[in-house]
Amino acid sequence: MFKLNILKNLTMATRNPSLRSYSPKVKSLTIGDKLILYGDEASPPVRFVQMTAAILGINLDFRNINLFTGENTTEFYKNINPLQKVPCLMTHDEVLVDSHAIALYLCRRWDTEHVLYPQGDLAQAHCDEILFYNATTLFPIDSDIYTKFFAGIPASKERVEDWLKALDFLEHRLKNHAWLAGDKMMLADICAVATISTVLCSIPLADHHVKLRRWLNDIEQQPFFNINKRGLERLMKFITAVKVGRFQQGRDVDQN
Asked: Model-level pTM greater than 0.85?
């Protein structure tokens, strides 16, 4: 079981020069920049966007869409996002329906100091590489595992192996750098940690994932990680409900 070690102080950040605390100033948005985010914090892509916004100091108008009661399938939400998935960002009467696109939009629009999204073609390519890896490999496995889990089907041995092999690539990426896309924490790390920490609620790291454990510990120390922790705690309520036989499709655990 993945244990969250949220530290109230950041003494390790002082000892480790590569570990900086991300506590930005809040950006002032114009009326036209009002950002409405629809989502459920149990969802890792939603938390990815929320953490990105928090690091950049962007205020989001969060509108909860409860996945467990099927609010994403209502006519109201289908009119906003026909894909019926979360997150969904509405701004300037436009809608973005993919977390990676949303996070990149926030960075390109407001990350003027390149806190999360680097300058330079190659640096951006390294960051993008992890975003694409999450979209094509990490999150699809996460989604498959939990979709089946909440349908009463535990993860197969083969699927667990798929997941651990996917993490092996990230372990390799951390061989020469402290972070997944270089020597400082970037958007790539925020994206990956939302997905990885979610699966860790059910499947532990392999013994050889030493660098990934260090990487996770470093991110857990950041103030913005409390957003992720809050979503994981919500998810764990449903995971626990399944394990003790109290989970019902279409009902929030607090209603059972």
From this structure: yes
